[in-house]
Hints:
Elements: H1 6-24, E1 56-67, E2 72-83, E3 99-109, E4 114-123, E5 129-131, E6 138-143, E7 151-156, E8 161-167, E9 172-180, E10 185-186, E11 192-194, E12 202-219, E13 222-237, E14 245-255, E15 260-268, E16 273-281, E17 287-290, E18 296-304, E19 311-320, E20 325-331, E21 337-339, E22 347-357, E23 360-369
Antiparallel strand pairs: 1-2, 1-13, 2-3, 3-4, 5-6, 6-7, 7-8, 8-9, 9-12, 10-12, 11-12, 12-13, 14-15, 14-23, 15-16, 16-17, 18-19, 19-20, 20-22, 21-22, 22-23
Amino acid sequence: MQATAPGFRLVVFGAIFWLAVMLASGAADGVKWKVAQPHYAWSFPQDHWAREGYKTEWWYFTGHLQAENGRRFGYQFTFFRLGVLPAAPDLNSAWRAHNAIMGHAAVSDLRAREHRFSEVFYRAVPLLGGFGSYPDAVLAWSRGPIGTDADWRLLWNGEAFDFEMQDAEARFGFSLSTRPAKPLIFQGPNGWSRKGESASAASQYYSLTRLATTGQITLDGKTYRVTGQSWMDKEFGSNQLGEQQVGWDWFSLQLDDQREIMLYLLRDQKGNIDFAGGTVVQPDGQAQYLSPDAFTVAVQERWKSANTSGVYPSRWVIAIPGENVEVEVMPEIADQENRSRLLPKLYYWEGAVIIRQDGKSIGKGYVELTGYGTSSRPAI
């Protein structure tokens, strides 16, 4: 069946309509979701697979890659599991659904200074998308965007993750394979990542902060063999943002001295920092957790999107005195805004950055900025 067939279009639009009705009617309200717990009993590799019963879950990859000819790229690949009900409804149908699957992918061509974004959004049912069960290799998959006759897939390769996507209309895609260069670490004690003062305002959160990455990127029909480094995050929970919180600034930084830094700052409706935290991963893989008073993030410049009028921070000075860190973080390209066409109010900045100290490059990373310039906050 071709992805562009009229029947398939009806299925796709029907799936999106179903999601809109379910979410707008509050179908997920009033039901009991699991919440993140400080003493969660982790089990790997099983916990790389979907954790049913939590309202929100994501597998998130970013990285810096280089082709044989020296051309450099940044990339993002994310699958989201969006729970509508904690468990499948009691219906005798293979098309019963209690989850939606959303995928976001982007490539920043750092030489051409061009950013491309793609997305998929389906209910998790046969033919459209879904989530695998341990020990199947498939963790998550979905049909590609309309007009693309190829699936998006996330697989467990026995050591880490393989993933692939294509978008025929946007004329880009990638297929990448990763291997761990450092061990898995928890973000927060035992992977319990606080997002507010309430004990339930948290997620279960772990990372692979340095993944050796190989594969290929295709742009406008030309394929580039690439190598580089990636960062992987996995989070799941049910009520991570408080009512007063509208978005976050999130940093994943890979320093050339083999340390990694994760920082997050949650903002309230007035733009003030409502809650913050972070982690420094030492060269030997040991994680040290940062309290909000252990670091500062000072915005030096801002950038306004011509497409959404969102105004984002665009250069920072980050200081962690206890780790002898004071660095400047700068976007590789100003416009790395991801703009959804399926959900018009959904847009955020997700971009490759370079880390400098005393005018010299000392690392690379990625920054995510949500909740800027829109009244609709991320639905997590």
